[in-house]
Design brief:
The protein has 229 residues and is α/β, with parallel strands linked by helices. It has a single domain, classed as Alpha-Beta Complex (Spore Coat Polysaccharide Biosynthesis Protein SpsA, Chain A), CATH 3.90.550.10. Helices cover 30% and strands 20% of the residues. The strands form three sheets. It has a six-stranded mixed sheet with strand order 4-1-5-9-6-10, with helices on both faces. The two termini are 36 Å apart. InterPro entries: CMP-NeuNAc_synthase (IPR050793), Cytidylyl_trans (IPR003329), Nucleotide-diphossugar_trans (IPR029044), PseF (IPR020039). It comes from Candidatus Accumulibacter cognatus. Keywords: Nucleotidyltransferase, Transferase. Pfam families: CTP_transf_3. This is N-acylneuraminate cytidylyltransferase.
Length: 229
């Protein structure tokens, strides 16, 4: 049984009600549900939430909410793996054995069915524990600078001040969209960022972290551009 878990607790601080705030005409979470449904991969698409309103919206857009997330897993410090593991264990208690399991973030409007399909195939073709979305940094991280207490600048790696950009190793970061994983790896809380994970590489123009109102506005402009492109 293939299972999609969309974590969506109700206590968003920086953007209140972020998971169900309208994004390009639909509640934000609806885009993740739509992508999961369009992929045709999942036996169950489950939203793990502690919030009655989020639950209602999720059901209206075709997801299931077979349980409410317990308060112990609904604070600001609970990680994604614990939420996914809880869902897997809930299904096991019902006699089902979900595997593999894909965590899809509720605030990932750029996630699409083809990438989910590609991630599953990469996991299936390897002995890895995870396959998740990544994208490249737009600027060489080796030439990054920080601000000092005196208000000046300082390089993190000053030895690369004169290194040409094309001679520096390309770096990638988590795209924050989806994470395919084997049930045993989720239950064991294995680290996702490790040599036991496969990268599903996405182009930078389809990746936007959404944590602030500025992020949200930029994401909507990007989304509109993609729809008309």
């Amino acid at each position: 049984m293939k299972l999609a878990i969309i974590p969506a607790r109700g206590g968003s601080k920086r953007i209140p009600r972020k998971n169900i705030k309208l994004f390009s005409g639909k509640p934000m979470i609806a885009w993740s549900i739509d992508a999961a449904r369009a992929s045709g991969l999942f036996d169950h698409i489950v939203v793990s939430t502690d919030d009655v309103e989020i639950s209602a919206v999720a059901k209206a857009y075709g997801a299931e909410v077979p349980f409410m997330r317990p308060p112990a897993l609904s604070d600001d410090y609970t990680g994604t793996s614990a939420v996914v593991a809880h869902a897997i264990q809930w299904y096991r208690a019902q006699g089902d054995m979900p595997d593999p399991v894909c965590c899809i973030y509720a605030t990932a409007p750029f996630v699409n069915a083809a990438d989910l399909q590609r991630g599953l195939q990469m996991l299936a073709d390897s002995d890895s524990d995870f396959a998740f979305s990544v994208t490249s940094f737009a600027f060489p991280i080796q030439r990054a600078i920080k601000l000092t207490e005196e208000g000046r600048v300082q390089m993190f790696q000053p030895e690369h001040f004169n290194t040409r950009s094309q001679d520096l190793e390309q770096a990638f970061h988590d795209a924050g969209q989806f994470y395919w994983g084997r049930a045993a790896a989720w239950i064991a809380d294995k680290p996702i960022f490790s040599s036991d994970a496969m990268p599903v590489i996405l182009p930078r123009h389809r990746v936007q972290d959404i944590d602030t109102p500025e992020d949200w506005e930029r994401a909507e402009w990007m989304f509109k551009a993609l729809q008309t492109g």
